[in-house]
Every structure is written in structure tokens, then in C-alpha cells.
Amino acid sequence: AAGPLVLGIESSCDETGVGIVRGRTLLTNTIASSMDEHVRYGGVVPEVASRAHVQAIGPAVAQALAEAQVRIEDLDAIAVTAGPGLSGALLVGVSAAKGLAAATGLPLYGINHLAAHVAVDLVAEDSPGLHTPTIALLVSGGHTEILRIGDIVDDIELLGATIDDAAGEAFDKTARLLGLDYPGGPNISRAAAGALDGTGVPGDPQAVRFPRGLSTAPDLRNPARRHSFSFSGLKTAVLRFVTAHEAGAGDRGIRLADVAASFEEAVVDVLVTKTLFACEDTGIDHVLLGGGVAANTRLRERLTERCAAAGVTLRVPPLRLCTDNGAMVAALGAEIASRSLAPSPFDFGVTSSLE
Ligand code: KG4
Ligand code: ZN
């Protein structure tokens, strides 16, 4: 297959990812995660992540080149996530990429992590091609955004983001207060399915009406809030609910499955509703879902239903490409390289924030 041969490095959070693509063909996608080291803290610890990246990055690059049977001198470009993300973590990937570029003389592209979550669909085996314009809903442990993508390289607009916890973080923190292990997303889903209390009876998503953040009528009229999210109040509401019910009578028969299903419903409801508002407001009839929370079955179901009802085409890349990885960075790097755009200036830095 034709197209530039690009190595991409991702280190914005806890995954050290190195991917290699040739044009729109994915050759390899090596991922080392420091997740195990964060479990006992109940969330990603930036310094721990940075140290793990330093240890993982060298072997990961070597492994990716070996798996793809590519020599460094065969590459056409190097791409690396420049932000947003944890700055100390980003610095490890950017420094490694600059070293490789300096040693080889290859062009180096600093990549926007959010755009890369969308661009990864270019290298999916079942990729329909990247339809633009599209709305993108990106939901992970580290970020939660709605984007308008007019062009994957030079027309990306942030429509809204979380003003506090990320969606995955809400799952993780709520799981913790429900006594479930980290990462919380999959465990809350299991609890909601009734798989953790031995009954196998699914919880009732309507059992408790937990708050939908930034969703009052005034919020929805406010352009700065209409496509934005807040999950910290939801977490607090769950805490208050379980505390009240534990302190109250055990005879109320509140099931963990009901609480988990109701929490999940509140998160999914607001994600889906606001994504469809974005479609409505922009007149765009395509949605792409990305990030680790795309693994949530209820989210995919509800988004599928609501998109179908609104005549919107939904695309979800394969789940292993939805979580943070190097292939997404390489995919966007290859797209930039194929347009013969200038490399990033060699002194580019990292950006921790969204803009
Ligand atoms: O993209 P990702 O793998 O990593 C980073 O955020 O860096 O996303 C991980 C996040 C975690 O917060 C995890 O709890 C959440 O995605 N997650 C889920 C599910 N699987 C993973 N959240 C809800 N439902 C799931 N099935
Ligand atoms: Zn991400």
C-alpha cells in the first residue's frame, strides 16, 4: 500500500503507545500501560505515569519497529502527542520523538491528542474513511469533549468539555465509593448488569433519578454550557444516596445493581443528549465516538438508538483503537505528511490544557 511510513508516539496519560502506519494501513500498535501501578491510588498519578513512560518508551519503540519489520531509516516521519494531557507524561514522549528526529533527520509532527482519537478511524480495518464534517464525542478517564471536525488537520473546534471530572473518572470515583475496584467503568457496568451480587438480575436504570450535570433549561440556553459536562455533582449525589440508605433501614432493599444502573444512565443520558444537541446545532449528521468509555455497552446502545432516530450516522472505531494508543498519533501524522505540510518547529513544547 502507498502512503507515508510514520511512527507515532503517545504518552499523554498512563499508556505508552507506539504505532506505525503506512498511509492508511496499520502495521503495528504497541502499548505498555502503567495502569497496574495506579490501581492502589484509585486514579492515574502523574509522577508515577511519567516514570513509567521513561522506562517503557525505549523498549516500546524497539518493539514496534521489530513487529512492523521496519528500520528507523525507512520511516518518512515521526509523530508525537504534544497535548492535551499530563505535562510530565507528554514530555517523555516528545523528548523521545525529538531524539529520534534529531538522530535521523526525519520530519517531526506534534499532534493534538483529541484529533488523533478521531484520525485513528482512518487506519481501522473496517474504516469507512473519515467522514467530515463530523461531531466527535471523546470520553475517557482523562478527558471528555464534544468536537466539531470540519477537517482532521486544520478545522477542529471544541464545542464543549467537562468542567470538572472526566466521564471515565466519574465511573472510577463512583465505583470507589461503591466499594468496587479500579478502573471503575467496567465494574460499574458489571454491577448494573446484576453480575456482582450473584443474582444476574439487571439493575433498574430508573430506580434513582441522579442529577444530569449542566442540563437545566438555563444551562442548555447558555452556549458556554450547552455542550459542556459536569460530573462531580453526580458523584456527590451517589455518595449522599448510599450514605443515607446505609444509615437508614436495611429493609429499604436498595440494590447495588439499581444504584450502578441509575448512575450509568445519568452519565450516558447527558453524553448522548448533548452529542445530539451538537448535531442539531451544527446541522452535522455524523458522529464518531472515541476514548476508553466507548467500551460502555449502555453508551453505545443509547447513542445508536438516538442517532438512528435523528437520522445521524454513528461510527465507533474498534475498541482497541478507541483507548489511548500510538496508532492514532501515527494515523494523523501520516495524514499530515501526505498533505506535504511543514513539520512542527523543532522547539515545540507540550500543552497540558485543551487550548
Ligand atoms: O481511554 P482510556 O483507556 O484511558 C485513559 O483515560 O487514559 O479510558 C479509561 C477509562 C477509565 O476511566 C475506565 O473506567 C473507563 O475508561 N471505562 C469505562 C468502561 N471501560 C473503561 N467506563 C464505562 N464503562 C466501561 N465499560
Ligand atoms: Zn485519550
Automatic annotation (TrEMBL):
The keyword Ribosomal protein does not apply. It comes from the Bacteria. It is found in: Cytoplasm. Keywords: Acyltransferase, Cytoplasm, Iron, Metal-binding, Transferase, tRNA processing. Pfam families: TsaD. Its EC number is 2.3.1.234. InterPro entries: ATPase_NBD, Gcp-like_dom, KAE1/TsaD, TsaD. Binds 1 Fe(2+) ion per subunit. It catalyses: L-threonylcarbamoyladenylate + adenosine(37) in tRNA = N(6)-L-threonylcarbamoyladenosine(37) in tRNA + AMP + H(+). Its cofactor is Fe(2+). Gene3D superfamilies: 3.30.420.40. Residues 26-330 form the Gcp-like domain. Fe cation binds at H113, H117, D324. Transmembrane segments: none annotated. CDD domains: ASKHA_NBD_TsaD_bac (cd24133). The keyword rRNA-binding does not apply. Substrate binds at L138, V139, S140, G141, G142, D172, G185, N296. Belongs to the KAE1 / TsaD family. Required for the formation of a threonylcarbamoyl group on adenosine at position 37 (t(6)A37) in tRNAs that read codons beginning with adenine. Is involved in the transfer of the threonylcarbamoyl moiety of threonylcarbamoyl-AMP (TC-AMP) to the N6 group of A37, together with TsaE and TsaB. TsaD likely plays a direct catalytic role in this reaction. This is tRNA N6-adenosine threonylcarbamoyltransferase. The lineage of its organism: Bacteria, Bacillati, Actinomycetota, Actinomycetes, Micrococcales.
